[in-house]
């Protein structure tokens, strides 16, 4: 059975995953109306779906362990971006914040000797490593591309097969 404090901490993570899903959904909608970014649009929509899956996994876990998963209210995410680069910077910053939150949860689970939760969270630890690395790779590529339109064309084409979140 989950402790009250662990339940609250996991519910905060539910909120964070839901916010991630909304943030990436907004990026997808923004990318969708930019010319020539079909691949990036697909990437953001997929990423948003993956974050929703992360949220659902937590909800099931909390309820299965005798807690109560709270479906949170959400603030409106950032809707527009000055450039593709800034959208991907935002994505990386967001992933870093999520990783830090997962690390805090792992720490709490150990302190409470809640080894089941600790074990459950290892999936998220691995997932964050992959997502951070992918977000960094995208930012590095965009840095290299700069204003080069043919580079951007290739980036949009290749991002679809770059593994993507949750691969
Ligand atoms: Fe939920 O993995 Fe990214 O944020």
Report on this structure.
Helix content is 75%, strand content 0%. By secondary structure, the chain is mostly helical. It has one domain: Up-down Bundle (Ferritin), CATH 1.20.1260. Helix 1 (4-32) packs antiparallel against helix 2, helix 1 (4-32) packs antiparallel against helix 3 and helix 3 (84-111) runs antiparallel to helix 4. The model has no long low-confidence stretch (mean pLDDT 96). Hydroxy diiron-OXO moiety binds next to helix 1, helix 2, helix 3 and helix 4.
CA-atom Rg in angstroms: 17 Å
Instruction: Report the portion of residues in β strands.
Output: under 5%
Average pLDDT figure: 96
For the sheet with most strands, the description reads: none
Q: What sort of overall outline do the alpha carbons produce when their principal axes are compared? A: elongated
Q: What structural class do helix, strand and pairing data support?
A: mainly alpha
Task: Count helical runs.
Answer: 5
Which blocks of ≥5 consecutive residues have pLDDT under 50?
none
Determine the N-to-C terminus distance.
31 Å
